[in-house]
Automatic annotation (TrEMBL):
SMART domains documented for this protein: BAR
InterPro entries attached to this UniProt entry: AH/BAR_dom_sf, BAR_dom, Endophilin_SH3RF
Name of protein: SHLB2 protein
GO biological-process terms attached to the record: membrane organization
Lineage of the species this protein comes from: Eukaryota, Metazoa, Chordata, Craniata, Vertebrata
Principal location listed in the UniProt entry: cytoplasm
Family statement drawn from the similarity comment of this UniProt entry: Belongs to the endophilin family.
Start and end residues of each BAR domain: 5-171
Gene responsible for this protein: Sh3glb2_1
PANTHER family (alphabetical): DREBRIN-LIKE PROTEIN-RELATED, SH3 DOMAIN-CONTAINING
Amino acid sequence: LQFTEEKLGQAEKTELDAHFENLLARADCTKNWTEKILRQTEVLLQPNPSARVEEFLYEKLDRKVPSRVTNGELLAQYMTEAANDFGPGTPYGKTLIKVGETQRRLGAAEREFIHSASINFLTPLRNFLEGDWRTISGGGRILQNRRLDLDACKARLKKAKAAEAKAAVTP
């Protein structure tokens, strides 16, 4: 009732401290940017949307995400197979083996980077959103409810004092 009356302009609203309002705004801004950075980093690390959904499902089911071959590793595999078909002693075969080995190392480095970024960057962001932010927003809701209770009590007290003053004036 208090909330509705405030929205309709029929009840007074106790304003929160300006510093606290600033902290709430900063916390909300931090949450929004953290969500955007988290999502975009996930897109960068895994551009394939269906693979991201699959990883998300594995994560929610608390199962280990199966290891995927990176594009560099797949290219290395094709180059090595082609080199074997052409003959490892031919100039083209030797070149494919060298480049394939380099691609394999690049693919392994990419896999390590994705793993490291997930653990050292994405996990703290998720922990903030799933832990700290829930605590902050829960505290904000509790504060809002307490403020509404306070304002409702103030309104009842004001009505009671007005009724008392009216009763004292009327003979």
